[in-house]
Amino acid sequence: MHAKEKPYACEICNKVFSRQGTLRRHLLTHTNEKPYACDLCNKPFSEQGTLKTHLLTHTKEKPYVCDFCHKAFSDRSNLRKHLLTHTKEKPYSCEICNRAFSDKRNLMKHLLTHTKEKSYACEICNKAFSQQGTLKAHLLTHTNEKPYSCEICNKAFSRQGNLKAHLLTHTKEKPYSCEICNRAFSRQGTLKTHLLTHTKEKQYSCEICNKAFSQPGTLKAHLLSHTLKKPCVTDYV
Questions:
Q1: What is the model's pTM?
Q2: Is residue 5 part of a domain?
Q3: CA dihedral angle for residue 105, residue 108, residue 141, residue 226, rounded to 10 degrees
């Protein structure tokens, strides 16, 4: 069989495969059948390989190691994604704005910012979100639950991302650097805010006087100029 030949086609979506076994596994994505279950937690999977990878989460085994920084992973695909952080390669690009991503899932999340679709709604306050993960994090604001705690200082957080950002305050690591001036930051959000100082973009505007600012903190400080009571001349008469 030639390398490019793919004689096995899916009758549902017409996707083609070079191996019959791969086609059989693909068909399970249409039927939602998950015949492989974990003996430890009963979580089902559609592919045996995915089950094997899942089992490593129970054993804490991480057999896939990065040759650059020696960071270890339990999943080979996670190692591949990690390697892109070293090569700076971003193979997934948005067809609308050409923004590039190293992870396909991040591209899919980004595409929702163009469609403005928010299909995940909070049952408590009806606030809607474009991503299920964001909704889950939002629900914790109602319960005040903080399941993610720092192993160094025991400070707790409602979001895993906030915990990761907090850990950098202990390690002093600054993995997010500006491509224009090389200034480094510990948080991606801080880098995004910093980039606005280069583009001169001012996306935070005052609802009272329409004055615009590049940083949310500057807007908050400005709002105080409206709320703070100014002394009247008659107060001194």
A1: 0.34
A2: no
A3: 130
